[in-house]
Design a protein that fits this description.
The complex is a heterodimer of chains A (181) and B (305). Chain A has 181 residues and is of the alpha/beta class. Chain A has a single domain, classed as Rossmann fold, CATH 3.40.50.2020. Chain A has four helices and eight strands; from the N terminus they run E-H-E-H-E-E-H-E-E-E-H-E. In chain A, helix 2 links the parallel strand 2 and strand 3. Chain A is globular. With 305 residues, chain B is an alpha/beta fold. Chain B contains eleven helices and nine strands. Classes of the chains: A alpha/beta (181), B alpha/beta (305). The interface between A and B is medium-sized, with 19 and 23 residues.
Amino acid sequence: MATMQTKIVLDKQDINRTLTRIAHEISERSRGMEHLVLIGIRRRGVAIAQRLSQKLHDITGVPVPVGALDITLYRDDLSEIDAQPVLKKTEIPFSVKGKRIILCDDVLYTGRTIRAALDGIIDLGRPMSIQLAVLIDRGHRELPIQANYVGKAISTTSDEQIEVFLEEDDQIDQVIVKKAA
Amino acid sequence: MELRNKDLLAIRDLSPEEILFILDTAESMKEISTRDIKKVPTLRGKTVINLFYEPSTRTRTSFEIAGKRLSADVINISSASSSTTKGETLKDTGRNLQAMNPDLIVIRHAAAGAPKILADALPVPVINAGDGAHEHPTQALLDAFTIREKKKTLAGITVAIIGDITHSRVARSNIALLKKMGAEVRLSGPYTMVPPHIEALGVSFIPDIGEAIRDADVIMMLRIQLERQQHGLFPTVREYARFFGLNREKLQRAKPDVLIMHPGPLNRGVEISPDVADGPYSIILDQVTNGVAVRMALLYLLIGK
């Protein structure tokens, strides 16, 4: 078995600083915060959306609603994966109609997850706009999709793995890159 | 996780983990039916055939809606308009349908075991939507979903099933499922409608309905199947209603938070009085709503990959 080389690319403080910067960028570019909502892609996108919502509230004093989107039913690779992914609920406690949505996820890679999420949101109604915020952009897109807000861009090879751990789901805040040695 | 079998023929074939997996998946499906646009693309390009040899409104419509909300193409075949009337055997009908490459067949048949014959003969997944007096597994799953939604658990719940146990596939599937999930099951009904040695299934038989419903968390009333009553199992419908029909007076002995269920169609004034069927304890229409979510979950788990 190949041993794995592991490198920490973001620690707890880095993640916090990064998300704070993204929150400032969002508030700068979203004058008025009107109709602004955050939708996190399950799983870790939800924690990111919640943290951004908290930070935006701290910065602007305006509460920003958060929703959670499960994209399993919109995936294009259900036939290619072994075990069926367990469905989690889509919980979006507001209408998306006329909203300025910021879609949140942990890692942007092929872009297929985002494609599925866009279809999923548009099936719920017609938003005014959808922007994308990600903690990590690791490149290797297979679809013409890019993020509006990027925490950290990391150039990777496709045999490397990026793993994001967030306290809400994993008890620790950390982003690591793994590579077969 | 995944379901181990190609088909869903009986609750007996499911493990408790698989049952929970189906119910959890159905919870996520339920939200889709509350949207403005009640459709997701998951089963686009899949073909589901509803093969119904017995009349049905609820179950057939429920499967059809479930398939359509997942974007499957759903075809309905009812016995009156099928080649069965020209003498074709079930296997031949199945082979002919298979030749048109469906992805799943839902079958309801008056003969116990008919879905098994079809499932063994064909590579396509088969769901049993009720076979004779044998099983109706999707009904038991939607009942379990509805109970769990209201009571948060199935383990330790006491369920009284009342009526014509002998002829009821709903009762058989529910007994199997509830026992598997750790619930206590009591049966009540006329002696002529309860099979001997029913205790072998791990349930108790309490002839007096008042005793049976006392302390029960859930009362499940069964339909008196007037179409199957050739042998006069009770003297008159009025007498049945008096002794075994659930009405407000009998309900006074039940728990204050009791849930009343019925698989439908209702014989109002026979096994259940209208004021009870429409009353505050009744979750009969929740069962129907949840039926769509449970069947969506099953279609997704059996052919969604």
